[in-house]
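Margin note: ligand = H79.
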Amino acid sequence: MERTDWFRAATYGLFIHWGLYAIPGGEWRGEAIPCGSEWIMKNARIPLAEYRRLAERFCPAQFDARALVRAAKRWGMRYLCVTAKHHDGFAMFDTAVSDWSVMHTPYGRDVVRDLANACAEEGMPFCVYYSQMQDWEDPNGHGNDWDYDPTKKDFRTYFYGKVLPQVRELLTNYGRIAMIWFDTPYDMPQALCRELRETVLACQPDCLINGRIGYGLGDYAQAADNSIPTLARQCAWETPMTLNSSWGYMKRDTAYRSPEEVIDRLVQIAGKGGNLLLNVGPDADGCVPAGETEVLERVGEWLARFGESVFDTAAAPDMPYLIRWGHLTYCPSRRCLYFHVREYPTIAQRVLLTGLRTPVRAVTLLSDGRALKWSQSYEPARNEHRFYVFLPPECAEEFDTVIAVELEGEALAQSLDEL
Ligand code: H79
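Resulting structure:
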């Protein structure tokens, strides 16, 4: 048993960016502020005294933690991570360390507790995001150089006075925390990052820590935001991804990724052995924007039919040539390669995979289990393995046509050097 086992099997999670920044939703004094709405305080250099007043207006009457967790399950997600404290320093939980929290708003409810309880009831692994270095409210936190003089800051005072106590609160008061998600370590001293890790594990030894704790101290690797690595990786890793251009709710941006694009990204990530942590930004009423839920519902419906090609998969072998027609995922225990055909071949009506060394046993269409024609050949003079699947024209599925290729053994690929 590895600490990351549950995480690797989960593959697809819900990220929730929610805080005071949902109220302005990317606009300040009638002006559109560029970049993520959760960065508005810094990007618009909003004086703290002014930003603080948002707390007087935080009253998300529509927020329903249980409904959100149930929705995440329906969407096919297998873990959930909420911003307990983002860079603005505002705690979405009840903290004894600071008054800068959701408890000091008209809402006055502990959002982290409601989500933690809902996740426990629904059997959903619950995770918290905690920005450990930046804190634009705390006089000693990193990042606010418009209210505070950076030369007068003492990071250790902030770290020992706020970060460690709040991390202990999160890991003590909310039951099992499956993972804590740190962000933007910048140049935080390595010794403090180690202390942070030790503090987490002293509270909950099974709590995973993401890669952005810094210095390789995390339990899994963190891809850059919205980025997919070129090659498959054997380690546990995760891509955090947005549906539009912002993590927090942004009024003006309704250009969401299509279901097709989300499925494409999820399949690519699963095929490279990673997880997708896909973000939603609830609005000031506590509602996930309809444009986001519509996409996620469609992806969830797709996963309900084709989930076996995504979950319980591991990195597929890197093939020698770029695959033009789509992506591969791989389930080692079933010895099954899944072909995700995105460019359906209407003319030649076949897809080619070059470099698969393992003999194939059977090929079926995942949607209805029907057997498909295939051929596998080897050309000795060129030392080249070729495998074709022939696709009847009526087989094309919306989004992604999934073909299950059952192998006689472990999937092995030729390296480019052999060819
Ligand atoms: O929580 C989400 C982002 O707010 C956070 N990570 C994800 C998961 C994040 N923090 N920093 N970054 C991402 C790097 C991005 C920095 C930018 Fe900017 C923010 C680019 C534009 C706004 C800072 C301010 C750098 C340029 C202007």
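The mean pLDDT is 97.
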